[in-house]
UniProtKB/TrEMBL annotation:
Keyword match ATP-binding: yes
GO molecular function: aspartate kinase activity
Similarity-based family: Belongs to the aspartokinase family.
UniProt pathway annotation: Amino-acid biosynthesis; L-methionine biosynthesis via de novo pathway; L-homoserine from L-aspartate: step 1/3; Amino-acid biosynthesis; L-lysine biosynthesis via DAP pathway; (S)-tetrahydrodipicolinate from L-aspartate: step 1/4; Amino-acid biosynthesis; L-threonine biosynthesis; L-threonine from L-aspartate: step 1/5
Protein name (Swiss-Prot/TrEMBL): Aspartokinase
SUPFAM superfamilies linked: ACT-like, Carbamate kinase-like
Species of the source: Faecalibacter bovis
């Protein structure tokens, strides 16, 4: 069994869907499990539905617009779109019905029940289209297979149940299912975190002992920098699992941080290739591969916050104080991307995914003086050389830290 993963950019419109079909006919699709994301910016649009719902605004207008967009795409790719349009409308009718009946104030729970529609609809459209042109496949509801706990928006995988479920699939066939989603013990939908579709593919690869896993992107493979922010990027032809994990940890956008661990455990080869030029080799991630070419790798994280904490009584930042701070960071679900401490101060570069930073600051102000630089940029340079920091505006530099082969610099936006 092979595992393919296609992101939202690959199925964002009718041309994208037709291109996926052509790609499968070119590279083969037999004995393949295909993981697919929501179309284009659908997840963002569904997040707007959640926002409107909790603000008591008219969310049905947004739902109707998303439905209309999907039906229009279906009409472009199907000669007769009656059946698929009915399927699409049913998904959105169910969504509207859920929101009208829902009594739960848990925003994360509601979020997961709403945003899941994006993946369910995109895979249904793609599966029906491929069947219509002779690429026979079976559509699967991933919630029957990937089981998690009830941590909505960040579901923790129940590996035993998940392995048992996926093991029931025949190893011969062509399957299409959703990324990003799972279900809890009560069969409520859970999500695996943003960009979790890559992780979904790795879960299926692990549980099927796949011969390989391929992520199809709109770039030629893993580059040494994001071309949206850096010029003269280079393709990394092959890298080790360890290097890929390091790049993912620091925020490389091509690979989801949780994706590589299941693959490394079973030494499953992992490829990142272009859905625009599918016959090009892309990047291979395998055991024992060195970084090739040996070039600096640049990672930029936006929307970071630099917090400087200092003792009000000039006492040392000791282990007990650090323990208390990190307990609070965990409580408020704030991620630390860099830390630097001295005797009486601590600097933290933070990622506030759930908008809890203000509460955290209020909580620690009783004990610490707090200085905040909001919306800063964090540059991470792996395998840096003497010229690597030329991309940084040194006049805006706030903090710099070097650990072995990794240089991190925080700058004002």
């Amino acid at each position: 069994m092979k595992v393919f993963k296609f992101g939202g950019a690959s199925v964002k419109d009718a041309d994208g869907i037709r291109n996926v079909a052509n790609l499968l006919q070119t590279v083969g699709y037999q004995n393949t499990c295909m993981i697919v994301s929501a179309m284009g910016k659908t997840t963002n649009a569904l997040e707007e539905v959640v926002k409107r719902y909790f603000n008591e605004d008219d969310y049905t207008l947004t739902i109707n617009e998303i439905e209309k967009q999907h039906i229009e795409i279906a009409k472009e790719v199907f000669e007769d779109a009656t059946d698929v349009s009915t399927e699409i409308s049913q998904f959105f009718n169910d969504l509207t019905s859920f929101l009208r009946r829902n009594k739960s104030p848990n925003r994360s729970y509601v979020y997961d029940q709403v945003v899941c529609c994006g993946e369910l609809i995109s895979t249904k459209i793609l599966s029906m289209y491929l069947n219509s042109i002779g690429l026979t496949n079976e559509w699967l509801d991933v919630r029957d297979y990937i089981k998690t706990d009830s941590t909505y928006r960040e579901g923790k995988v129940d590996w035993k149940s998940t392995e048992n479920n996926i093991a029931k699939l025949p190893t011969v066939g062509f399957y299409i299912t959703q990324g990003f989603l799972g279900s809890d013990p009560n069969y409520f939908t859970t999500t695996l975190g943003r960009e979790g579709s890559d992780y979904s593919a790795a879960i299926f690869a692990y549980c099927t002992n796949a011969e390989s896993m391929t992520i199809w992107k709109d770039v030629p493979g893993v580059l040494n920098a994001d071309p949206r922010y850096f010029e003269d990027t280079e393709l990394l032809n092959h890298i080790s699992y360890e290097e890929a994990i390091e790049l993912a940890y620091y925020g490389a956008s091509v690979i989801h941080p949780k994706t590589l661990q299941p693959l490394q455990q079973k030494e499953i080869p992992f490829f990142v290739k272009s859905f625009i030029n599918p016959l090009e080799p892309g990047t291979a991630v395998r055991k024992g591969q060195p970084l090739n070419p040996q070039v600096p790798c640049f990672i930029l994280k936006n929307e970071q916050h630099l917090i400087r904490l200092s003792s009000k009584d000039f006492s040392f930042i000791t282990e007990d104080k650090l323990s208390g701070l990190f307990t609070k960071l965990y409580q408020y679900q704030i991620k630390v991307n860099l830390m630097q401490n001295s005797a009486i101060s601590l600097s933290l570069c933070l990622e506030d995914k759930y908008n809890n930073l203000e509460q955290f600051i209020q909580d620690v102000e009783e004990e610490f003086k707090v200085q905040v630089d909001e919306n800063v940029l964090l540059y991470t340079i792996r395998h840096f050389d003497e010229n690597s920091d030329s991309v940084i505006n040194k006049d805006k530099e706030l903090l710099r830290q070097t650990v072995r082969e990794t240089l991190q610099i925080v700058v004002k936006n």
